[in-house]
Amino acid sequence: MDLGSGHSARLLRYLRSAGRVARGIAVDVSLDPSVARDGITLLEADLNGLLPLETASADVVTSIAVIEHLHRPELHVAEAHRILKPGGRLIMTTPSPRSKWILEFLAYQLHVIDEHEIRDHKHYFDERELRQTMAAAGFRPEDVTYHGFLFGLNQLLVVTRS
Description:
Elements: E1 2-3, H1 10-17, E2 24-28, E3 40-44, E4 58-64, H2 73-83, E5 84-95, H3 100-109, H4 115-119, H5 127-136, E6 144-149, E7 154-160
C-alpha cells in the first residue's frame, strides 16, 4: 500500500512494471482513474483520518514525502501500524529540518520546485520526533531503522511491525 501515492501513483506503477510487486493499493486524496489497472487498486481517502482498509492486510506500506504535509501525522503512522501484517514493513521518507531553508529557497527564490508543495509542509521532523511518533503508534523502538541521506537533508525510516 502506498499511502500518499500522488495523483498518478508513480511509485506503484514503477514497482509493478519492474515486477517488484504483484499488486498494490494507491491511497491519496485524488487519483487518476486510468491508473487502476494491472494489479493497482485506487482508494481516494484523506490521510489525516482513519483509512477504510482492513487491519493487518498489508505486507508493505510506503509513505514517501507525505508525513510533513499532514495535520495529523501521528494518526497517519498509527494507521500504517494498524494495516500492516505482523512482520510487515513501513518505509517512510521525509525532509529533515536542515532542508527547510534549501527547499524554500528553491521554491520561493529560484522557482525550480513547486511552491505549493513546499508551502504545504506543516512540520519538519527531526530523528527524535520521528522515533517518538513511531513509538506512540505502537512500533517498538528496536524495530525502527533510521537513515539520513542526501547530506542529512532527507530521512528514511524502515520500521517492522512486531
